[in-house]
Design brief:
mainly alpha
Length: 272
């Protein structure tokens, strides 16, 4: 695996439904300043990536966090670290599955409004959709002889780019002054709201650490792994920050603020 393959792995792990499932939560607690929360989280993630990059240069092996813990601490502590990482991945997978189910059921009800009178849009249906999504993806993964996902990752990036381009066109052809007014007030909940939004959304920038987990399968790992981590994080921020700005302006109904995005928040996803 070269630089392109390693970067695609990181981009695929970072860029995805996390921004869509968590943007509503961020805007509901911080308003337009949710963009600042993501930018600050990007700075924290960059520091974390720098630590991973240094460790990858020193231990260019497969295993990632577990490998680092095993080489630096005891095998017992590394065992605990490995299971903590797996548990965190499971929690993230559940969050994304619930996000998918919520969007899928919303789209289904809009396409077939007559289903609104049934129980299709209920909690049981959303949980079933999430379970089916996880099962189908697991089946696709175990049937592969090797890793993949390049086409899917490129597809995700293209979709995000199209959404951003459409939002940029709407901004350019609309009334910039009126759209900018939707960012006022910017700090609806002050610094506390920004910090809360950071706590809710930091997970949306995680994934570059998976590049280190395949360090033994990367050519010239001491050189390739750090570059792939920085590139994947940079690409994610280059997609996320413009999209958040467009959400808060052209994506906000006239007369409403970004804080009105309360229909797709983390507590609602978890309850669903």
């Amino acid at each position: 695996m070269g630089l392109f393959g390693a970067t695609i792995l990181g981009v695929g792990a970072i860029v995805g439904g996390g921004i869509l499932a968590l943007a509503g939560t961020a805007f509901s607690v911080a308003g337009p300043s949710a963009m600042v929360s993501f930018a600050l989280n990007g700075g924290i993630a960059l520091l974390t990536a720098a630590s991973f990059a240094r460790l990858a240069r020193r231990f260019p092996e497969s295993g990632g966090t577990y490998t680092y813990a095993k080489n630096v601490f005891s095998i017992e502590l590394a065992f605990v670290v490995g299971w903590v990482v797996w548990f965190a991945s499971i929690v993230a997978g559940v969050l994304y599955a619930l996000g998918f189910a919520a969007f899928f059921m919303e789209g289904l009800l809009r396409a077939l409004p007559q289903l609104a009178e049934t129980r299709v849009g209920g909690d049981t249906a959303r949980l079933a959709a999430a379970a089916i999504a996880i099962g189908a993806y697991m089946l696709a993964l175990v049937r592969r002889a090797a890793g993949g996902g390049t086409a899917e990752t490129i597809g995700k990036v293209v979709v995000f780019a199209v959404v951003i381009a459409g939002g940029a066109w709407a901004w350019a052809t609309g009334s910039p002054g009126e759209l900018a007014d939707r960012l006022n007030p910017f700090f609806t909940e002050g610094a506390g709201g920004v910090v809360r939004a950071m706590g809710y959304t930091f997970i949306a920038l995680q994934g570059f650490d998976l590049i280190a987990a395949v360090g033994g399968e990367v050519r010239e790992p001491q050189r390739t792994l750090p570059r792939a981590m920085y590139l994947s994080l940079g690409i994610a921020l280059a997609l996320y920050l413009p999209m958040l700005f467009l959400f808060a302006t052209v994506g906000t109904p006239a007369g409403a603020g970004a804080g009105s995005f309360t229909h797709m928040t983390l507590p609602r996803l978890v309850r669903g």
